[in-house]
Amino acid sequence: MICAGTGCVANGSLRVKDALETELIKRNLQGEVKIVLTGCNGFCAKGPVMVVYPEDIFYQLVKTEDVPHLVEEHFIKGRPVQKFLYTPPADKKTIPVMNEIPFFKHQVLRALRNRSLIDAEKVEEYIARDGYMAAAKALLEMTPEQIVNEMKKSGLRGRGGAGFLTGLKWELCARVQGDIKYILCNGDEGDPGAFMDRSVMEADPHSVLEGMIIAAKAINAHYGYIYVRAEYPLAVQRLQLAIEQAKDNGLLGKNILGTGFDLDIEIYQGAGAFVCGEETALMASIEGKRGMPRAKPPFPAVKGLWQRPSVLNNVETFANVPPIILNGADWFSSLGTEKSKGTKVFALSGALNNIGLVEVPMGTPLKTIIFDIGGGIKNNRKFKAVQMGGPSGGCIPHTLIDTPVDFENINKTGAIMGSGGMVVMDEATCMPAMAKFFLEFTEDESCGKCVPCRIGNRTLLTILQRITSGEGREGDIELLLALSQQIKDTSLCGLGQTSPNPVLTTIKYFRDEYEAHIRDHTCPARVCTPLVKFVVNQDKCKKCGQCFRACPTGALKWEKGQVAYIDPEKCTKCKSCIKACRFWSID
Amino acid sequence: MAKLTIADLKKIKEQYHQGLREGGFRVKITVHMGTCGIAAGARAIMNTVMEEIAKSDAKDVAVTTSGCAGLCSQEPMATIELAGEPPVKYIALTEDKMRRIYAEHVKGGKPVQEFALVAGHETTY
Question: Under an 8 A CB cutoff, do B122 and A104 touch?
Answer without folding.
Answer: yes
